[in-house]
Amino acid sequence: MTHALDIAADIIAPDRSADLPALVFAPAHEQARALAEGRVSAVELLAYTLARIDRLNPVINAVIVRDDTSAYAAARAADAALARGERKPLLGVPITFKENFDVAGLVTSVGDPAWADNRAQVDAPAVTALREAGAVVIGKTNVPLALADLQSFNAIYGTTNNPWNLAHTPGGSSGGSAAAVAAGFSALDLGTDIGGSIRIPAHFTGTFGHKPSYGLVYNGGLGVPPGKQSLRDLSVAGPLARSAQDLELALTLLLNRDPQANKTWRAELPAPRQHRLRDFRVLLLTQWPGQDRSESEQWVHDRLVAVVQAAGITPLTIEDLPDGLWPDLPATHRLYRSLLTATRPAPRPDTPHAKAEAQALREGSDDSDEIAGRRGPHLTHGEWLEKNEARMQLRQRWSRIFEHIDLVLTPNLVTTAFRHDPNPPKQTRTIPVSYADGVRQLGFFELFNWAGLPVLPGLPATAFPLGLDALGLPVGAQAIGPFLEDLTPIRFAHLLQQAGLSQFVVPPGFAG
Q: Which residues are catalytic?
């Protein structure tokens, strides 16, 4: 047996061992309740979790950095606090963080060998927030190189597999996060999202994930180089979990962590718009303008129609909105692509890549998604300001749309989890996507329509599972809500879960 398995055998009381296989897959808030009620100790829960990681993580490689010594110290402290009668939302609950979050004493590399020795000195504010809530930090979960892929592999930590099918990816860039939560290695994980990096891994692994409204959760202390103060435009930090209720719990803990802004400003989330499923005004959007539905999108459409009808909801379409209110989605997607790539520095002008880019910029059309993306890093400040104004105008338009509806339901991606394809560069990689007339090879940058839809205007979006497709792979959808009304899509997913219409399922081979 491995070291963690030996420790678990010594620590776990015989009368507790029968309960732990189920408890390790319980939502974080239920684990916290079990700890508060004395049904298990924090040390026992941690020992069992680490033993599971030792036994099963080699198969999926989700947890790539651990600090067992610190985790056991935190678990013992949690048990002492529980014995004193203290109660905190996550007291004694074992959790993980995406690798790009600074955790004191652990490396933050974003999968880049150039930063393999970058050991964080202090916790990121988000890490501090969950520690203060009593969480026991196990370690970190895997990412793609520079967080820039829909798969999670890098030269430092290797490849993370999907617990539902080891030949398939769990997604990226929060792929390790989603895989760890799905496999029962962590009750909660924090990821980041700028192009679906929380929602797509949740979709691929059958878990829940929430992309907060832009600016709501402070995401300093992330990534490299260390100590940077400017935050990446469009990017947000948010939770992945096995229940929507845990998304709300984590989000409330993460508020007001900006060390400068919290001197004066305090965010307080508006209450969810509705408290009963049948009262939600839901717009169903499952086909991107000008494109065929893939088989996965069709599956999501059919399942969403069944789900909302079972909930007593009559879904709306864009035709039910006032004329001229709905935005031009292809145009907004080009704007998203432009501002997304503008968050990255332009290549040095003397490199072959830069010369190829310059040629493409001269020859490309303004109505091309690809050219819009390539031009992003080369925008002048004045051009960026014009595009930013267009973004703000779009956010205002969405505010008017949400006067007529509460949520927009869409797919997360045009496909389910696809097979690993480590062949770089991703710019030339294609992904097989099934349609009614056969399989089509889509380019990497053709995959982000649904993911980018809420990112550009900064809207909150909650990913929730819908079930398994014919191949046994998880399929999910996203609920997009009004700006800063994050509790509305989260509550919708929670009510679906309560009604049995959206459920986390343990992947085969990972129970026990």
A: 98, 173, 197
